[in-house]
Amino acid sequence: QPVVAAGDLIAFPLLGLRPVLQHQQILSLALGACLVALAAATVLALGSSDRVAHQLNTTGQSLMQSQRLAKSVAQALIGSAQAFPDVAESAEVLSSSVRGLRSGDNKMRLDALGGDYEDELGKIAPLVERAQKNASHVIAQQKTLTGVSTAVRQINRQSRELLDLTQEVATQKLEQGLPAVETSAAGRLAMLTQRIGKSANEFLTPQGVSDTSIAQLDMDVNAFHRILQGLLHGSADLGLGAAKNPQTVSALEKLAKVFDETRAQVVFILSHRSSVAAARNAQDVILADSEALRRGLEDLQRRLAAQ
Question: What's the per-residue H, E or C state across the chain?
């Protein structure tokens, strides 16, 4: 409590005996200093909160893009044209975000996390670098992958027509009472139309194609061509005579025309199998790293959220 002294003087604890006006000035200055300190503390607190929130948001963005990349690269491998821009964008955003978290980025208004987070970032960064590298490999094969996808779709469309035509030839052979070897050859063509389509479709499966299935596709196409030519022009090796019935000749010539288109698509697929294999290997690395990358980013996200 202030103590009133003689005259205009008044005593305050800590301030001593002073005139009233002087006490007011001192207390006003003290109050102002307290308000400035409070404002500074508020600004620092808000700045720190905003900085951590931005880092947390960037970590969340990285997590989302890591999963988007894994999904998009799988679509790119089956030749989906719209997937390639997604692969490129996800890889770039993921890389720049993690790089910004580690070193800071003025354009992103992102502060580096600092040495306290080096353990987490040391696990994440190599995975991100590898993901970007392999995403680039997949993007580089865009023309080939979309071309193979188009070829497979074309083979699928032609497969039904090839089957119908081979069955028509087999029926005609049977009706004409020709040797069983010719009817059997026509039936084998029908089987090959389906096996060729199945083998071609394996190029678009997540498991990819094996050397065995590639060899089988090549053998089946060559076998189809050999039998078809034997039925049309005759083949001593296959025990087949040349077709003489005009209706059968017409059906075989139509079959040969459709098969030439299918064969061209198969040749295109087989000639690019190494490029498809390289792209698939890149995809496998991205998918294999995806789970570890997800866990690392989630751990980092939880730690930042705790702040």
Answer: CCEECCCCEEEECCCEEEEHHHHHHHHHHHHHHHHHHHHHHHHHHHHHHHHHHHHHHHHHHHHHHHHHHHHHHHHHHCCCCCHHHHHHHHHHHHHHHHHHHHHCECCCCECCCCHHHHHHHHHHHHHHHHHHHHHHHHHHCHHHHHHHHHHHHHHHHHHHHHHHHHHHHHHHHHHCCCCHHHHHHHHHHHHHHHHHHHHHHHHHCCCCCCHHHHHHHHHHHHHHHHHHHHHHHCECCCCECCCCCHHHHHHHHHHHHHHHHHHHHHHHHHHCHHHHHHHHHHHHHHHHHHHHHHHHHHHHHHHHHCC
For each successive 10 residues of the chain (307 residues), what is the average pLDDT? 56 68 72 68 53 83 93 92 95 92 80 84 93 96 94 91 91 85 90 90 73 86 95 92 91 94 94 90 93 92 83
Report the predicted TM-score, pTM, of the whole model to 2 decimal places: 0.75
